[in-house]
Amino acid sequence: MVDYFEERGINASEDADTRRARLESHIMRLMADFNLFEELGMPNQLAPPASKEVVNSLVEEKIAKSNSGKCDICLKEYEIDEITKVMPCKHKFHSECIDAWLSKTNSCPLCRYELPTDDKFYEDYRKEKKRAKERDADIANLHNSMFS
User: Fold this and answer.
1) Domain RING-type spans what residues (predicted)?
2) More reliable by pLDDT, 55 or 4
């Protein structure tokens, strides 16, 4: 005979945090399936700061020659032997400028490339948004292959 937990598919040995995280994931999925993010105005919500770990791991580059451009945040020219940080999208900025920027939001100021955050809710939202786009593309491909 199955017990209460087995009947409901609950692993009784899991800790409360693991169960809570799984429940949050199911809620996020439900919200995405019924477009509740848009209903709640979440697309207009500001993105949280980038993960400190990711910001600290950005590649640093030393400026080797003069006239090598300017920082698009503070608009000052780079000086020789100055340290800059390079984003994964290959845009570079003064270290202190990009650190201050990424402490407020998780995206590149030029192209809006998004870095990971420490906000689990926002990361789940991003995953669901990406999945929704992929589903729409798959449906369009299926439709086009059937009717063209």
Assistant:
1) 71-112
2) 55
- Taking the CA atoms of the chain, what radius of gyration do you get in angstroms? 22
**Nearest alpha carbon to residue 106 among 35, 57, 61, 55:** 55
For the stretch 25-44, pLDDT in tens is 777 767 766 777 667 666 55
Q: How far apart are CA 145 and CA 142, in angstroms?
A: 5
Distance CA 39, CA 57 (A): 36
Domains of the chain listed by start with CATH number: 1-48+120-148 (no CATH), 49-118 (3.30.40.10)
CB 58 within 8 A of CB 86: yes
Q: What's the rounded Cα separation, in Å, for the pair 116 and 114?
A: 7
